[in-house]
């Protein structure tokens, strides 16, 4: 019984990446499902014109939405998004969930009262769920944080392994001023985060290739991280 409760209540990070034109529909869905803790970002798609044409993509401007919900509610939200935003149709967007290994106390106040009461036990449950996702992950989210202007180099590497596209989020480096002065290194402030969903078995090779082509020792001054993806919608394989 506790295992079922653990799986249903442990928080999940839900990410939805959709065409900018569908943002209003997504906001309506979030209001309807009472999703209070969410953030919206502007992103850019990286798919080539040939892929856009083949998959019916309407443009490269994307909306990236990130929210945190208990696993059971994340499942409802994923299913609703698949139906409302038609994520089963190629090119309409993707959505995926990632187990959360830690969360601030203030976030609990925006979630259900049941989670607040189980706050202490949830810390242990989140560790268990995160480890389980690492072992069972079918997809991984690989994120390369590089200097502005190097997103194409990142995607060239990803395309060589069969990735169809990614999403670019504009960012800015913060802090590290003392480290820059100490090491005498100039770090570009403007950054780009290139997020790519890949099969789990491709993650290691992609990260190694990105490290060589766009890592800290290159002009891109990149940092590459990966996260296990628990569930995914809107992405399909030619073999399926």
Overview of the molecule:
The protein folds into 2 domains: 2-136, Alpha-Beta Plaits (2-Layer Sandwich), CATH 3.30.70.120; 139-228, Alpha-Beta Plaits (2-Layer Sandwich), CATH 3.30.70. The chain is globular and about 50 Å long. With 240 residues, the protein is an alpha+beta fold. The protein has 10 helices and 9 strands. The longest helix has 18 residues, at 119-136. It starts with a helix and ends in a 7-residue tail after the last strand. The model is unreliable at 53-58 (pLDDT under 50). The chain has a 9-stranded antiparallel β-sheet with strand order 8-5-7-6-2-3-1-4-9. Helix 2 packs across helix 4 (71-84) and helix 8 crosses helix 10.
The number of domains is: 2
Specify the helix fraction band.
40-55%
Between the first and last Cα atoms, what is the distance in angstroms?
34 Å
Largest sheet: 9 strands, antiparallel
Secondary-structure-derived class: alpha+beta
Number of separate strands: 9
Mean pLDDT metric: 79
Beta-strand residue percentage: 25-35%
- What overall geometry do the principal axes of the alpha carbons give? globular
How many helical elements? 10
**In the CATH scheme, what's the topology name of the largest domain?**
Alpha-Beta Plaits
- Which CATH class of the largest domain? Alpha Beta
Give the strand line-up of the largest sheet. 8-5-7-6-2-3-1-4-9
In the CATH hierarchy, what is the architecture of the largest domain at level 2?
Answer: 2-Layer Sandwich
Radius of gyration: 19 Å
Poorly predicted runs are 53-58
**Order of H and E elements:** HEHEHEHEHHHEHEHEHEE
